[in-house]
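dumping this here before i forget
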Amino acid sequence: MEPLVLTFDIGTQSARAVLVDDSGILLHKTQKRFDPPYFSLEPGWAEQKAEYYWDTVCQLSRELQGISGEDWGRIAAVSITTIRDTNICLDKNGEPIRPVILWLDKREASTRKPLPFPQTAAFSVAGMGESAKHIRRISVCNWLMQNEPQNWEKTDKYMMLSGYMHFCLCGKMIDSAANIIGHVPFDNKKRRWMKKTDLSYCLFPIPQQKLCELCEPGTIIGGITEKASELTGIPAGTPLVATGSDKGCETIGLSCINPGQAALSFGTTATIQYTTDRYVEPQQYMPAYVAPAAGMWNPEIEIYRGYWLISWFTREFAEKEMREAAEKGIAPEELLNRRLREIPPGCQGLMMQPYFTPGVKMPRARGSVIGFSDVHTRIHIYRAIIEGINFALINGMKSIEKRIKTPTTAVYLAGGGSQSAEICQITADMFGVPAYRTQTHEAAVIGSSLLAFRALGRFSSLEEAINSMVHIRDSFQPDMEAHRQYQWLYSNVFTQTYKRLKPLYEKNYE
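structure:
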């Protein structure tokens, strides 16, 4: 019998378990939406019980076993990919000490205690003084040290969600270097934990003994334990392969392993990501992440509240579509997307900045909409959100292109937003290059399972694995007249908006 890989994908809103074959076919799938995806003990907090994720994995695995029949016996390896920058404190027995803190949590640590003078001076000279303060504030480890010292004292290992899942499955506190994406002392260029003497270590001073063992992506880290087997139904001893984060696996699952290929992820966080065989920062002093492909990196620009903005718009402005969608048994976004064609490129002068959550490079940014007139409707706002996200991603593309010295020749789309043909066409028009969708929007699952097959020796190279498992389903050719309009708007309006509004954003923070 031909082998299969069982891949778990834990997202912000849901998790899924999928059986995948070596031609990239998703044979069987179970999925569970998190209800709620997180809870908030204080405004802006986002936490979840660690056991909730593990219980969900066990439940999905058992359900998949029930529907997959004889195919369940073909599982040759297990892999898991998860959301990033989601942190958990474990005691010496691997038990969670407190709930998981998700990537979208907005608590902030105090920065009243200054950094040592040499580091402060170095950050100031580099023009990163304000960004360094911002990073210290939003690093969860600093908040824990200040506000929960007893829990921090009990913490034996401070891990990403991915590492905790590895421990639950194979009993080892180990994680892939391609999962270490967050506010922790990790040296992406050297693919190892920082040393105390490294400049940035002071921003998140986690003691070395609280950090887990690291391995390269594509490593078989152990076998499924007897305990995990009883709970999941996965045969004990089945190899567990460490792969990478959801965004990194998505990029490989879209076949983007050459610098001219851009992977666009239209998820809760929208990203543009490339794969390079040398370390290239996407912006000055911003790291390129370790890629799930061994020996490679992923330069990336994030829009933290990407397609979350679509959910926000639907909730706040689309009551009519929500009612109609409920009657028809479809998603309200499907009705909204059909109406995108009613609005011309550029939304008749309406433009949005999608910076609802500020980033390290723009720590004072806010979201904004400019250009309202009496011709505008809420559908104009809806399209302006999509165009605004894409303008921000184009900004990221141009920044990365300068650094990798390679023009983008095509974009590959994944995430919930990519299921809309209208959004795909708008994206092709705005970027001015062909946009492609692969055989499934579950690109992260394909990427993670592809790496597991590679670890098993099924493929002799990453290229061979991609040729076998990734297939272009749809292509969208750009309308170059629309592209010229977008180019003008990008150069003359979008890129000018932040610098003009920055003084007002600053006042909002006073």
